[in-house]
Amino acid sequence: MRLINLAAGRPDRGSTVIWLLLLTPTLFGFAGLVLDGGRVLAARQKAANIAEQAARVGVDTLDITAYRDSAGTVDRVDATRARTAACRFVAVARPGAHCVVQTAGNRVTVRVTVTTPTAVLGVVGVGSLTTTGVGSARSAVGITGEGR
Description:
Layout (H helix, E strand, L loop, with lengths): L14 H45 L4 H6 L9 H15 L4 E7 L2 E11 L10 E11 L10
Antiparallel strand pairs: 1-2, 2-3
């Protein structure tokens, strides 16, 4: 009985292994971008939601004394109380998030920065990704409508 070597003389011998070695890191890279990219997009949306709600909390700190002294013509927020209230809300909603608050008259703008750990990209040394969300709110005073 004689054995026949079917692979002898074929020029593509072993090419499957080379293709596998080349495509595996590429496929893991795409998987990392899809999975961790989705996580970052979700974190960005969550940060924007938290920033918007924190801005609403901050704008609730209307400077009542200035409003009453002006007979309702000046509606501005108390900057210190707005900053404290907004950042307290952020700390409760997302522990570890960074909060920056800016006030201008009756408007409060909150910038929330969050860090999200990666699931797949950690294999290549990207342990976390940082994203930011911004929200803004302004005070609206009145009984029957804004300013009335």
